[in-house]
Design goal:
Blueprint lengths: L18 H6 L1 E13 L2 E7 L9 E4 L2 E9 L4 E16 L7 E12 L4 E8 L3 E3 L3 E16 L4 E9 L6 E5 L9 E8 L3
Antiparallel strand pairs: 1-2, 1-12, 3-11, 4-10, 5-9, 5-11, 5-12, 6-7, 6-8, 6-10
Length: 191
């Protein structure tokens, strides 16, 4: 809401759209995956801020399944291609047979009682024997969906491929461009 006008002249709000926003009727908003501690509990969420995460990675010996949530405080409508840029890999040394590593991302809508899948995509399979870390990107399409106030945008990341003494990981540190996970959400600028 604009501030109260006490001078009698109209207040002008400055809104900037680029050519793509106008032509396509949508814009991409980046959301960063991050982790933080709430007293004794690790919590994970989506944020628009570039902040330092603690922990900076989620990892597991065999698999991980982690939700990143954002509670909606203003209605938002999404439609189109969701892009997720992420860093993943394996650590822990060792050798032996090559293991296949990948991460699957699923976008969901949570209304407090029902979780609805909106789209999903598995990332590239990597078969490796040693430590590695690499950037990748996935894309999937979502149909027109509106999130009301109080609903949750949820991104779920499922990683597989770790082995005894080896971890599969996903970077979740917004302040480190070599170890981050960013979801670009296509929002409608006009209906």
């Amino acid at each position: 809401m604009p501030p109260e006008n006490i001078y009698g002249r109209p207040i002008v709000e400055n809104v900037v759209f680029n050519f793509d926003d106008i032509i396509t009727g949508r814009t991409y908003i980046p959301f960063y995956c991050f982790g933080h501690h709430d007293l004794t509990t690790e919590r994970f969420a989506l944020t628009r801020q570039i902040i330092t995460s603690d922990p900076t990675r989620i990892a597991s010996i065999t698999t991980f399944d982690q939700d990143f949530d954002l509670l909606v405080n203003r209605p938002i409508t999404i439609e189109g291609d969701v892009l997720i840029e992420y860093n993943y890999g394996s650590t822990g040394g060792g050798s032996g047979a090559a293991r296949a590593y990948n991460i699957t991302f699923t976008l969901r809508k949570w209304d407090g009682s029902t979780e609805t899948d909106l789209g999903s995509q598995q990332g590239r399979n990597n078969s490796r024997t040693g430590d590695f870390s690499q950037k990748s990107i996935v894309k999937f399409t979502v149909n027109k969906t509106t999130f009301a106030i109080g609903e949750t945008i949820r991104l779920t990341a499922v990683g597989i491929g770790g082995a005894a003494s080896r971890l599969v990981f996903l970077g979740i540190n917004p302040s480190d461009s070599t170890d981050e996970c960013i979801m670009y959400l296509p929002t409608l600028t006009q209906e």
